[in-house]
Amino acid sequence: MSKIEQKSIDLASQEMLKKAQAEGLNTCWDRVDSMQPQCGFGQLGVCCTVCNMGPCRIDPFGEGPECGVCGATADTIAARNLARKIAVGGSAHSDHGRDVANTLLMTAKHGGQDKAKGSHSHDYDITDENKLKKVAQEIGLEIKGKDKFELAKEVGELMLGEFGKQKGELLFINRAPKKRQEIWRKLGIVPRGIDREVVELLHTTTMGVDNEYRNLMLTGMRCALADGWGGSMIATDLQDILLGKPVPIRSKVNLGVLKEDEVNVVVHGHEPVLSEMAVKASRDPELLKLAKEKGANGINLAGICCTANEVLMRQGVPVAGNFLQQELAIITGAVEVMMVDVQCIMPALEQLASCFHTKLITTSPKARFPGVKHIQFTEEKAYAVSKQIIREAIDNYPNRIKEKVNIPKQTMDLVAGFTKEVVFQILGGTYRASYRPLNEGIISGRLRGVAGVVGCNNPKQTHDLFHVELVKELMKKDVLVLQTGCSAIACAKAGFLVPEAAKQYAGRGLQEICDAVGIPPVLHLGSCVDNSRILTAACEIIKEGGLGEDLSDIPAAGAAPEWMSEKAITIGFYFVASGVYTVFGADPFSVFGSKNLTEYLTNGIEKDVGGKFAFSDNPQEMAKLMIEHIDNKRKALNLKPAMYA
Amino acid sequence: MSKVVAAAVMRGTQSVFKQAESILNKAIEEKSESTKVGFPETAFYFPMANALLAEEVKTLGDAKKILEHARTLLPRELPQDKVWLPYLGDVLDSGIATLLCEEIIMALRYLSGEEPQADCNGFFSDTVLRSLGLQLVDGRMPGFAAILGAAPDNKTAVEIVRQLQERSILIFAGSSSNGRSIIDQLKEENVAMGWDNYIVPYGRDTLSAIYPLNWAIRSTLTFGGLKAGQAQKCLLYCKERVFAFGLALGPLDDIKYATGAGAIAMGFPVIADTDIPEIRPTGVAGYEALVKEKDHSKIVPVGIEIRGIKIKVSKIPIPVLYGAAFEGERVRREQVYVEFGSKFSASFEFLRMKDSDKIEDDKVELIGPDIEAVEKQSKRIMPLGIVVEVAGRKMQKDFEPILERQIHRYINGAMGVMHIGQRDMNWIRISKETAAKGFKLKHLAVIIRAKILEEYGAIVDKVQTKIYTKEEDVEKFSKVANDSYNERDERLGGMTDESVEVFYSCALCQSFAPNHVCIVTPERLGLCGGYSWLDTKASFEILPSGPNQPIEKGQCLDEKSGIYKNVNEFIYQKSNKSVESVSMYSFINSPQTSCGCFECIVAIMPEANGVIVVNRDYTGMTPIGMTFTTLAGSVGGGVQTPGFLGVGKLYLISKKFISAEGGLRRVVWMPKELKEALGEKLKKRCEAEIDAGFYEKIADETQATTSEQLLEVLNKASHPALTLPPLM
Questions:
Q1: Could you state, in chain order, the average pLDDT of each consecutive group of 10 residues for chain B (728 residues)?
Q2: Is B93 close to A429, i.e. CB distance below 8 A?
Q3: Tell me, what's the pLDDT at B1?
Q4: I need a labelling partner for A304 at 20 to 30 A (CA). Which of A379, B134, B257, B343 fits?
């Protein structure tokens, strides 16, 4: 892939790639080129490094070894490799959730102490007491006679307990429709405790334990469910309680949001707990004054990846770009500080930042870079740490090299902030809060169905192209698209996340719905842990009635068109295990070396859980597969065909 | 495009809110926060605020709380030109805010004597709602239409209301457009208005459209068994069970849009006759929420369709319009072309069954001159005898009086024909206009046959009619009829609960009171007064899967209270498992529940050791300190309330009237009009059960309206209740 137009469809990104090329700066696109051809055994999933009798690899052509030294076949090896990725993806989301639970507990403790003292010393608060009460009731807590800190403490303790729980069932499993719960129970894949499922899955993949691919995948699904209905869901809900529940909000997206005349601080990674404080610090009068003194007209915070999505959803902070734009942001030469937390942060940033005045600052003890400045974030000193980081940025502003600054002009408006709760409000207001109009939209056929399009970017594919083309096609066919993560950012840049997009891109039925409600045809639901919002919204659809009894009955499909992270695999598995047909782009999960496993994932698994995977490297085909599936589900529910098909 | 509508709604809401705020503040300034404020004849304070917020607004200070709540519902921002935020939720909130503010404004107008407006009804009382209850459920009144604005010309205005009347849809007329109101258009065309005519003018401005809306919301509390404050449930009840829609005639302004949004939040769609942006996606209202229909001949059918109203239109081949909406219409003296009966001439109507081979269906014989004979007379009076003969395989002699009783309603449905009374006490008038359109006596027979076959087709196959207009014939056949009337009365009088093996249920009202079931016995008619045991029996024959089901009495668990095992099992299932046991004759031990359309309430008065009975037309105070409407608030909705009972008037003269507690002798008070309405029958029952003097011992409002007064009267009269075993 050499031509810049083939690297990305995004004009701002193309401009930065040209600059990189001109200045000899190395980006992931160059590195992916130099990596070619990539390892075929790895791609097929038949390389095993589990024990020291290996590494072993199975000959895909049937001429060499048909099993490893221990006797593991291609089925076992591919399934074990895949299972390990599920465990890793799940551990990432869940560890995120655990940190939020800890922050909630700390806030509850400080809040209680402050109340006794009558002062306010802590940086966090219980911002959404309503949601706290709702969640508390859902998990069986008595809410009467407790103040928000007492209740937050109980909720926090119960939620934290979910990680180390050894038996029983995760509490949020109850949110799923009854029929879905029964499917899981029958298969024995209801998660017991979040950490336990990760550990047990890893155990089963070690040398000489589980050799049966279906069983490995069932254990894998239990671990994935512990992410989707556990770690991720806890992260989402507790973040809402702590930082506030998102509501529809306007903002802007793309590298053009960086400012020529302001201190640019880019927050990158996944966790909002620190970046929310950074937003607050960027509005601190003392720091604003300091910025003025250094010649800047203000402090401009912008986000990359899911940290961006988190602060976008709650604070309307502009988004500089998605995963593949992290290097490009630095290449603008206008970023004073890129502060990072965890996940999806390319190790290459350090090298690239050193070519500019940009300071890379790590904040998590879990994610360090050699030679990079580390300012450790602790929840107790959240605001102080944030101020320190912003101050670093301000101090760095005079070091910006004017000649090296090229901020692309491209920005696009967007509306974000859609959640399970918001849907009630925007469809019914305070007194008619309901999913009814959405369900009726689907039942009447104005909406063909619902699609979740999520996931990462991958330099092996043309950046953003798959997201944008797929979503464009879905909109045209009257499918309401729910998005999270870097996929949402891709479509935001394409202008799909403004209400005006309905008229330009949507089919007539979707247009009518968007027009009646005032929404964009593509709804941004947040970060990748917020995929849990898609699950809970789907549960509300079932609860509202008329579209079946189980999640797998809904005319809906999912896709991760440009995936790259192990987290995407885990998300895919918890969606499939929840009954959702899910299409993955790019390469399949390195399983094609095992015919049996591939057959199971794309077919047999449906008999077990009602959902299945499909793989495609063509966005038009992906759309076709998803729409076919949606139409089949409509038929199964005896619904009329799409109204304006 | 809906954004335009959203913006108009929000602007309208802001304007109504400001109006409410300014006049409320002014009123508080001029008077005080403790100044009383409210609507006449309601137990629900500000009904919209009561249903949605559980607030009981009694003073200006209370009204302020409502205003402050409305403030929280105002939109965050008006929809912007670009990158607008979702507005549907805000539109619905704005609609509710508008209704709450309109209620405040109207109540303040009542306070300052500006309401009701000239020729208008103003606030609709609770009583009207209850008395219409039965018609609403049995299909006689299939829905409501609220007209806002004015038609392009008077002729169109009349055509629209006639279309609605013909379908028996109750019309609320009001508001204005371009300075004209539909009310004045109808007035100028001499269209008879009022509840009886199915056209109720509410007010000439849009704000007064709150009246039909805060009337509709009360049905949730009176019939739906919902509690004040169950906002979402109340609104959904309206959406699912109150078949109302709005017709916006003429250009729409912001206030109409805002009020319309309130209606839509209640699930009521709005149809406009102008070029407005439509809201077609469904889910908020039953079907589409806002649509346009510029053709006035189609606007009514469109309204009916998008509200999902089910209508049985009787197309009866007579030269005038026909529909339930004309039932209440009067033919005044100066309009009379001809009249029959009353004190003016001999007249009777009589229905009997015959063997099928003796009847030729659709045969009408007029024996004597037709109505034009009056042209040559000095007085416009003629004798009349109507003899209807029916046959059908499932027809029974017992059903004769039921069918005969319908003649009154049937004939009344013709425009310009008035019918009062029954049997040989009837009185019929035909208007000049109707006669001019070619209405003849045979048309009475046409109507009777068509309606009998429509409503009782399951039991009647053939109908033939003889109409006599010669004095001697009328007198002769009147005697035959009279013998029959007497025979029927005797048979009915002798029918007791013990003489039958089955009772009948009546779940007709479950369409709006989902947990209520009446049990109708020969000696206890339905609480609405509309269904006797024979009626329910006939109804079951007509529609075996219908609302009236036979219940084999089976084992009696408590003879005194009249509790039966089978009845209990039946009621438990049909009340959605909310009522486990009901008695037939007790108002304390497992009393029957009520839907809300009871004719009277029997209420315990412990200090008198008896009960008072109050009918729904009585608006005054009762000795137990509650008006009918207040009392009714705690009796309806399918809930058992020991000590309180909703009953049909005629149950008072049944031998089984609260017999478990001692019967009639427990009655210590009832309004004069009720006492007089029961008249001789009540006197006879008093004499039979207690003594001739007891009738006088039942006090009325001329003697007592407080507990103290009543006790004094009772003591003086030595009322027998005082010496009965204690009720509690």
A1: 91 98 97 96 95 97 97 95 96 98 98 94 90 74 93 97 92 96 96 92 97 94 89 94 94 97 96 93 87 95 89 81 85 92 90 92 94 92 96 88 88 91 88 95 95 88 94 93 85 85 89 87 89 87 85 92 94 90 94 89 94 91 91 83 92 94 95 92 92 93 95 94 90
A2: yes
A3: 55
A4: A379
Q: Which residues pair with B298 in a beta bridge?
A: none
pTM higher than the cut 0.90: no
Contact status of B76 with chain A (Cβ, < 8 Å):
no
Alpha-carbon distance A498 to nearest alpha carbon in chain B (angstroms)? 6
Is the pLDDT reported for residue A418 higher than 90? yes
CB contact B606 to A (< 8 Å)? no
H/E element holding A304?
Answer: strand A299-304
* Interacting residues of A337 by C-beta distance below 8 A, sequence separation 6+: A264, A265, A266, A358, A359, A360, A361, A389, A390, A392, A393, A396
Give the sign of the dihedral formed by CA B421, CA B422, CA B424, CA B426. positive
- CATH number at A268 reads 3.40.50.2030
Q: Which of B85, B231, B289 sits opposite A518 (nearest CB)?
A: B85
Give the CA distances from residue B231 to residues A224, A433, A439, B235, B676, in Å, rounded to whole numbers and listed in that order: 40, 11, 22, 6, 42
For residue A447, the chain B residue with the least C-alpha distance is B281
Portion 401-440 of A in contact with B at CB < 8 A: 413-415, 425-434, 436-440
pLDDT at B51: 97
Q: How far apart are CA A147 and CA A151, in angstroms?
A: 6
Q: Do A583 and A549 lie in a common domain?
A: yes
User: What is the Rg, in whole angstroms, of the alpha carbon atoms belonging to chain B?
Assistant: 27
Least Cα separation, residue B231 to chain A (angstroms): 6
Q: What is the pLDDT at residue B511?
A: 76
Q: How far apart are CA B527 and CA A367, in angstroms?
A: 76
A439/B283 Cβ within 8 A: yes
Domain boundaries, chain B: 2-307, 324-484, 498-723
Considering CB atoms only, which of A414, A428, A515 is closest to B89? Answer: A428
Pick the CATH number of B2-307 from 3.20.20.70, 3.40.50.300, 3.40.50.2030, 3.90.550.10: 3.40.50.2030
Q: Encode pLDDT of A493-509 as tens digits.
A: 999 999 999 999 999 99
Tens of pLDDT along A592-603? 999 999 999 999
Beta bridge partner(s), residue A304: A268, A321
Does residue B286 belong to the interface with chain A, where contact is any CB pair within 8 Å? no
ipTM value of the model? 0.94
- Token digits of residue B616: 């729904």
Strands B180-181 and B199-203: unpaired
A255, A407 in Cβ contact below 8 A? Answer: yes
| Total tally of structural domains belonging to chain A | 3
Check B83 against A498: CB less than 8 A apart. Answer: yes
Instruction: Decide if A8 is inside a domain.
Output: no
User: How many angstroms separate the Cα of A227 from the Cα of each of A95, A197, A342, A373, A632?
Assistant: 10, 9, 17, 32, 29
Surface of A (519-558) touching B: CB under 8 A: 519
Pick from B528, B593, B587: which is nearest to B561 by CA?
B587
What confidence score (pLDDT) does residue A368 get?
96
Does residue A148 sit within a domain? Answer: yes
Structural domain for A296, as ranges: 255-404
* β partners of residue B504: B520, B550
E strands in B296-383: 336-341, 347-353, 364-367
- Report the chain A residue with the minimal C-alpha distance to residue B7: A518
Q: What's the confidence (pLDDT) of residue B140? A: 75
Please name the member of A249, A426, A437 whose beta carbon is closest to the beta carbon of B281: A437
In chain B, what residues touch A643 (CB-CB under 8 Å)? none
What is the DSSP annotation of B254-307? HHHHHHHHHHHHTT--EEESS----B---SSSSS-SEEE---TTTHHHHHHHHH
